[in-house]
Amino acid sequence: MVPILLTTSTAKSHASGLLGLLIAHQCNQTRRWQKDEVEFMDKLAVQLAIAINQGELLNNLRKELDQRIKLEGELERLFQVLEASKDYLLRRGFRWTNTRRKSTATQVNAVSC
């Protein structure tokens, strides 16, 4: 029996860092496991932990990508509403100046003097 453990950098998401146990069993008789067999199980447990960790990372990336795609769609929709509003106001003869930009430029000039 060998523990499947997360590394310390990824163990934050799991309380103990223990993912599970890798168990080898010989049913027909009692077995004394050789040193190289135990080392193989240890190495296999490390590889399993890495694979599980990478699977979790991939899952997190997919969730983040889905969220970003959703936000991008919402931004696009808002941009279209903004463009339609601008077009409507322009057709109605509304004109505006960018007073905020002028105000910022005035503040910068006042500070630099």
Structure explained in plain terms:
The protein has 113 residues and is mostly helical. The protein has one domain. It is built from two helices and two strands; from the N terminus they run ββαα. It has a two-stranded antiparallel sheet. It starts with a strand and ends with a helix. Mean pLDDT is 83; it is low at 103-113.
Describe the structure concisely.
Helices cover 63% and strands 8% of the residues. It has helices spanning 35-91, 99-112, and strands at residues 2-5, 18-22. The model is unreliable at 103-113 (pLDDT under 50).
Question: Which helices and strands, and how do they pair?
Answer:
Layout: E1 2-5, E2 18-22, H1 35-91, H2 99-112
Antiparallel strand pairs: 1-2
Mean pLDDT: 83
Helix content percent band: 55-70%
What is the CA–CA distance across the termini? 75 Å
- Shape label: rod-shaped
Number of helical segments? Answer: 2
Question: Cα-atom Rg, whole angstroms?
Answer: 31 Å
Strands of the widest sheet, in order across it, are 1-2
The tally of structural domains comes to 1
**Uncertain ranges:** 103-113
Q: What is the string of helix and strand elements?
A: EEHH
How much strand content do the residues show?
A: 5-15%
